[in-house]
Amino acid sequence: MATTQKTWTRDEINALLRKSDRAVERAIVRLFELQTADEQAETTTKYHNTVGFCSADAFPGTRFARWLLGYNDSNEKVFAAKSLSHPRAAKVFRRYGEPMARARKIALKHSRQLVKIANGEL
Fold first, then answer.
1. Distance (Å, whole) CA 98 – CA 115
2. Domains of the chain, residue spans
3. How far is residue 94 from each of residues 49, 64, 87, measured CA to CA in Å?
4. Who's near 45: CB < 8 A, 6+ residues apart?
């Protein structure tokens, strides 16, 4: 028996990102995973491939993703994974303002990609 898979809209993804910190964190990690290995390593956007972070968000997005995944600057898992709501996050990411607010802004900016991910297109 075939099941019908939900098709997400951008409005639905945006609403989810606005209300769920966990959805924002998952979005940041997924966008990071779409960066090429050299983009991840250099915290930049080098290719115009329409996936991953845009150039303005590559550095903070990569730093947030590494924090969330427990990665060091070489993208090796050496720390415990932590939430952007962790008490130390505000100090570590103080240059970006409140970490969850900045991550939410990045996720919402990239929600077109997140819709494609949710719908199995990426």
1. 25
2. 10-118
3. 30, 12, 12
4. 35, 39, 52, 53, 54, 55, 58
Amino acid (1-letter code) at residue 77 = K
User: Which amino acid does the sequence have at 18?
Assistant: R
Task: Specify the DSSP element, H or E, that contains 61.
Answer: helix 55-69
Global pTM reads 0.92
86-107 burial: b if 16+ Cβ within 10 Å, else e: eeebeeebeebeebbebbbbbb
pLDDT digits (tens, 9 = 90+) for 19-36: 999 999 999 999 999 999
User: Per residue in 50-92, pLDDT tens?
Assistant: 899 999 999 999 999 999 999 999 999 999 999 999 999 999 9
Residues 45, 77: Cα–Cα separation, whole Å: 22
